[in-house]
């Protein structure tokens, strides 16, 4: 069992933050229940937990977005009221959100002073900010061109601007919410260096994440949340990923699905010089060539937005393209009447889209209506030629829910009432049970709980072992490394190279993802 | 989790909205120096207090069921068809062309043919805006409202210059032949030996309207086309993912919508006026929007809302007849009902949701 870090640890100074008995309910949902936590000064404190465990609610209370129903907040040992974010800033708390809050067509400098101007005239504020930014850049490796427009900056640099904004407002405590979700591995490494620097200068950092690797790498202490409760707080040095996963989920979890060697068969999908141009006339795929064999998982690694979505869209019949795509030797229509989702399904291509809430499901539809989604022409779902056989779909859904362990197993429940993991299981059940020759699967575990990730990975590997071809797109390198039999890295609409997972590492893939070709093999 | 139980969503919210609309109407009636209680009594007795009143109420409700269903079907595809007025106008033309074409041997044959005529003409009038929306992205609200004006002008031209009988000064067609006369409910009840609804226009079309309610329910919730319409209406990107063609679904939904609006003319033109006149639609196309909004695009809701608006129409006529309250006030009441059920829906819904949430919380805690 976890070695609990209790308050008997003799702190020399008052903790930077202490929460005592925080509770918060939204209607009947208890988002936080009696949470107490101490974050010592000058440490990096990780908070992990599954989606809906209450991490974001807790941080929103700390940042003044919500008011706790009960409990108190102590900053530097003093009880503090935080009714709004202004009060949080005054108390020395800075927050870096997962989705940046920056004005795209302002410069870095203008963004930094926005809301913190010293007077009606901007010039003195800008001059002061320029000086402060220079000092901060020096001190913490936080160098950003102060005159660059936000829209011209990479995601990693935009995040630095967010950190600078907080430091400019004299934040001593920094909260980062899932900071690495949008970063390349190299950018993430740089961020961690910045965070370690900040820590050495005496800042306190709270890192919210679901990535166990990051927790292990950078935090001093870690708190685990489950279902609105703080289940444990442990010293990072005293724990390991398996134990943390177990604390998060409440049972033992396999972090890496065991899979045997692949036995690739004949070529299922052959892509040659595939190009896709979007509505604005921008070429998103710039001549892709790939092959996938039966019984093989090809993983596409890359930072989001480098053409992976377009690749899935054109193969799934959502977007149009040029070039050649052959499935089992048969040419697929890329621009004509047969380049739609129905034709692709008829060709035995199943597609688990990246954006399950906007593409993969109709959130207002019930689970059973979503099980028929895309397969609504299936003769098994019709009766007497005129009406849909709702009873047949309901029965089919009940079976799928049982086989894919969807909870709660209620076919008549609206899709939006299921958790992300269970929504994904419904989609996977729908697509995998069609027994497709080719499965396209994008971000299979985005926003999915650890427990469900294990299940989803198992099912994908099972499909491969049944001799089917799988095209896996994911921005999670861990996922790509552990599931793929072969890895292709995409950057700016091109394939930068192919690697075998056992013969590469995150560093090499990260360089390819950043567009550095010819990385040492 | 559901914020409101179904019954509250379907019954309570519209009911409170209607009550609020009536309360404000009562204040308006007070302001012009009349007695609101008396006014309500006159409306109730006038519209629902006698078989005669019911006859008119049901006649109007029949019109509103068709136009309400028309708007509702389009709503399910997330299309706002406000061209019911024009589509019903053209439906009238279809009815007239069919009825005047032959000396019909029996009303059943004439009715069947006129139904097809009304539906085809109504759908045809929706087809151009539908195509412009589906293929070109021209906004359906703009195009359908323009087609309302074009339809009215077209009918005006045809009645004055083409279809007017020689020697008549009236911009209307000749009377339909006797074989095209639809039996009124009075005719039908008399044949059964218990005459009801004497000298009122409610006729056999009411049953077609009721059948249309059932048919639309089947279409939307039991057929594959309805499934695709709903899927497309909820999320176009998802529909494309599933291989549902946005162009086809937009066309189908709006053609069905236009056909339903056109069928309103069976009741008004064939059942009541028995010839095609100018402005036979009398705003029923627009009332259909309110009916669909209030009925939450569900055929049963449309049926109930159509009855309410039928009551408002007939009650309003009585009010104008017996008091100094102008008929326009009824338009005010209708407008208030539309305002409260459509635009201000959240004003009633949100407090109600909070109330239900507050009622639920204690037992939510207790379960733990």
UniProtKB/TrEMBL annotation, chain A:
<dbReference type="InterPro" id="IPR017871">
    <property type="entry name" value="ABC_transporter-like_CS"/>
</dbReference>
<dbReference type="GO" id="GO:0005524">
    <property type="term" value="F:ATP binding"/>
</dbReference>
<protein>
    <submittedName>
        <fullName>ABC transporter ATP-binding protein</fullName>
    </submittedName>
</protein>
<dbReference type="InterPro" id="IPR003439">
    <property type="entry name" value="ABC_transporter-like_ATP-bd"/>
</dbReference>
<dbReference type="Pfam" id="PF00005">
    <property type="entry name" value="ABC_tran"/>
</dbReference>
<keyword id="KW-0067">ATP-binding</keyword>
<dbReference type="InterPro" id="IPR050107">
    <property type="entry name" value="ABC_carbohydrate_import_ATPase"/>
</dbReference>
<dbReference type="InterPro" id="IPR003593">
    <property type="entry name" value="AAA+_ATPase"/>
</dbReference>
<feature type="domain" description="ABC transporter">
    <location>
        <begin position="269"/>
        <end position="517"/>
    </location>
</feature>
<dbReference type="InterPro" id="IPR027417">
    <property type="entry name" value="P-loop_NTPase"/>
</dbReference>
<feature type="domain" description="ABC transporter">
    <location>
        <begin position="17"/>
        <end position="252"/>
    </location>
</feature>
<keyword id="KW-0547">Nucleotide-binding</keyword>
TrEMBL record, chain B:
<protein>
    <submittedName>
        <fullName>ABC transporter permease</fullName>
    </submittedName>
</protein>
<feature type="transmembrane region" description="Helical">
    <location>
        <begin position="249"/>
        <end position="270"/>
    </location>
</feature>
<feature type="transmembrane region" description="Helical">
    <location>
        <begin position="329"/>
        <end position="348"/>
    </location>
</feature>
<keyword id="KW-1003">Cell membrane</keyword>
<keyword id="KW-1133">Transmembrane helix</keyword>
<dbReference type="Pfam" id="PF02653">
    <property type="entry name" value="BPD_transp_2"/>
</dbReference>
<feature type="transmembrane region" description="Helical">
    <location>
        <begin position="140"/>
        <end position="160"/>
    </location>
</feature>
<feature type="transmembrane region" description="Helical">
    <location>
        <begin position="53"/>
        <end position="75"/>
    </location>
</feature>
<feature type="transmembrane region" description="Helical">
    <location>
        <begin position="302"/>
        <end position="323"/>
    </location>
</feature>
<keyword id="KW-0812">Transmembrane</keyword>
<dbReference type="InterPro" id="IPR001851">
    <property type="entry name" value="ABC_transp_permease"/>
</dbReference>
<feature type="transmembrane region" description="Helical">
    <location>
        <begin position="12"/>
        <end position="33"/>
    </location>
</feature>
<keyword id="KW-0472">Membrane</keyword>
<feature type="transmembrane region" description="Helical">
    <location>
        <begin position="87"/>
        <end position="104"/>
    </location>
</feature>
<feature type="transmembrane region" description="Helical">
    <location>
        <begin position="276"/>
        <end position="295"/>
    </location>
</feature>
<feature type="transmembrane region" description="Helical">
    <location>
        <begin position="110"/>
        <end position="128"/>
    </location>
</feature>
<feature type="transmembrane region" description="Helical">
    <location>
        <begin position="202"/>
        <end position="221"/>
    </location>
</feature>
């Amino acid at each position: 069992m976890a070695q609990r870090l209790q308050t008997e640890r003799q702190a020399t100074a008052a903790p930077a933050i202490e929460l005592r008995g925080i509770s918060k309910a939204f209607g009947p949902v208890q988002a936080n229940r009696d949470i107490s936590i101490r974050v010592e000064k000058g440490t990096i404190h990780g908070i992990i937990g599954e989606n809906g465990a209450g991490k974001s609610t807790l941080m929103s209370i700390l940042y003044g977005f919500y008011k706790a129903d009960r409990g108190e907040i102590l900053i530097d040992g003093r009880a503090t009221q935080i009714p709004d974010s202004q009060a949080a800033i005054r108390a020395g708390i800075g927050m870096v959100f997962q989705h940046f809050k920056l004005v795209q067509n302002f410069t870095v400098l203008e963004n930094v002073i926005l809301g913190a101007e010293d007077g009606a005239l901007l010039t003195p504020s800008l001059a002061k900010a320029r000086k402060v930014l220079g000092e901060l850049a020096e001190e913490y490796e936080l160098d950003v061109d102060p005159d660059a427009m936000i829209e011209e900056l990479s995601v990693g640099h935009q995040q630095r601007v967010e950190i600078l904004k907080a430091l400019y407002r004299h934040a001593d405590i920094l909260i980062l919410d899932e900071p690495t979700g949008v970063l390349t591995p190299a950018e993430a490494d740089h961020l961690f260096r910045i965070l370690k620097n900040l820590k050495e200068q005496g800042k306190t950092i709270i890192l919210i994440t679901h990535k166990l690797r990051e927790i292990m790498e950078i935090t001093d202490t870690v708190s685990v949340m489950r279902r609105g409760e703080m289940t444990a707080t442990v010293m990072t040095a005293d724990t390991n990923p398996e134990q943390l996963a177990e604390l998060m989920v409440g049972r033992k979890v396999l972090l890496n699905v065991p899979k045997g060697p692949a036995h690739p068969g004949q070529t299922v999908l052959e892509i040659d010089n595939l190009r896709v141009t979007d509505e604005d006339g921008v070429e998103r795929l710039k001549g892709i060539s790939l092959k996938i064999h039966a019984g093989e998982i090809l993983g596409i690694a890359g930072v989001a937005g480098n053409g992976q979505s377009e690749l899935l869209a054109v193969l799934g019949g959502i977007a149009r393209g040029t070039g050649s795509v052959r499935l089992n030797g048969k040419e697929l229509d890329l621009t004509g009447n047969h380049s739609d989702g129905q034709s692709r399904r008829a060709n035995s291509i199943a597609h688990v889209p990246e954006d399950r809430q906007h593409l993969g499901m109709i959130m207002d539809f019930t689970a059973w209506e979503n099980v028929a989604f895309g397969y609504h022409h299936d003769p098994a779902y019709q009766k007497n030629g005129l009406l849909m056989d709702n009873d047949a779909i309901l029965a089919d859904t009940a079976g799928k829910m049982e086989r894919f362990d969807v909870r709660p197993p209620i076919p008549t429940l609206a899709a939006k009432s299921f958790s992300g993991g269970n929504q994904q299981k419904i989609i996977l059940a729908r697509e995998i049970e069609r027994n497709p020759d080719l499965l396209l699967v994008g971000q299979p575990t985005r926003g999915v709980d650890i427990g469900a990730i294990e299940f989803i990975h198992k099912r994908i590997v099972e499909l491969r072992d049944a001799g089917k071809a799988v095209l896996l797109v994911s921005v999670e390198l861990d996922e790509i490394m552990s599931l793929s039999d072969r890895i292709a890295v995409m950057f700016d609409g091109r394939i930068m190279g192919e690697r075998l997972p056992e013969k590469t590492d995150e560093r090499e893939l990260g360089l390819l993802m950043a567009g550095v070709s010819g990385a040492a093999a | 989790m559901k914020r409101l139980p179904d019954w509250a969503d379907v019954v309570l919210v519209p009911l409170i909205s209607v009550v609020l609309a009536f309360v404000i109407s009562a204040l308006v009636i007070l302001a012009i120096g009349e007695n609101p209680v008396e006014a309500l009594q006159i409306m109730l007795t006038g519209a629902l207090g006698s078989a005669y009143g019911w006859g008119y109420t049901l006649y109007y409700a029949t019109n509103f069921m068709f136009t309400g269903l028309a708007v509702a079907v389009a709503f399910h595809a997330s299309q706002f068809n406000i061209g019911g007025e024009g589509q019903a106008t053209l439906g009238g033309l279809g009815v007239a062309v069919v009825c005047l074409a032959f000396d019909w041997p029996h009303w059943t044959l004439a009715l069947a043919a006129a139904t097809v005529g009304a539906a085809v003409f109504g759908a045809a009038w929706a087809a151009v805006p539908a195509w412009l929306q589906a293929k070109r992205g021209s906004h359906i609200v703009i195009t359908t409202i323009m087609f309302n004006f074009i339809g009215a002008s077209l009918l005006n031209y045809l009645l004055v210059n083409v279809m007017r009988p020689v020697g008549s000064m009236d911009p209307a067609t000749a009377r339909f032949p006797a074989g095209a006369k639809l039996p009124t409910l009075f005719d039908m009840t008399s044949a059964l030996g218990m005459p009801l609804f004497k000298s009122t226009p409610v006729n056999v079309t009411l049953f077609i309207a009721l059948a249309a309610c059932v048919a639309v329910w089947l279409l939307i919730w039991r057929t594959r086309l309805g499934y695709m319409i709903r899927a497309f209406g909820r999320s176009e990107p998802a529909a494309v993912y599933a291989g549902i063609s946005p162009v086809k679904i937009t066309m189908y939904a709006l053609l069905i919508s236009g056909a339903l609006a056109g069928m309103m003319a069976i009741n008004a033109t064939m059942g009541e006026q028995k010839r095609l006149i100018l402005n036979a639609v009398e705003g029923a196309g627009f009332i259909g929007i309110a009916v669909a909004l209030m009925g939450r695009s569900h055929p049963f809701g449309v049926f109930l809302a159509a009855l309410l608006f039928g009551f408002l129409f007939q009650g309003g006529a009585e009010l104008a007849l017996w008091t100094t309250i102008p008929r326009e006030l009824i338009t005010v009441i209708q407008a208030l009902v539309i305002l409260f059920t459509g635009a201000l829906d959240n004003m009633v819904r949100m407090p109600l949701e909070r109330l239900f949430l507050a009622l639920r919380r204690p037992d939510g805690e207790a379960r733990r």
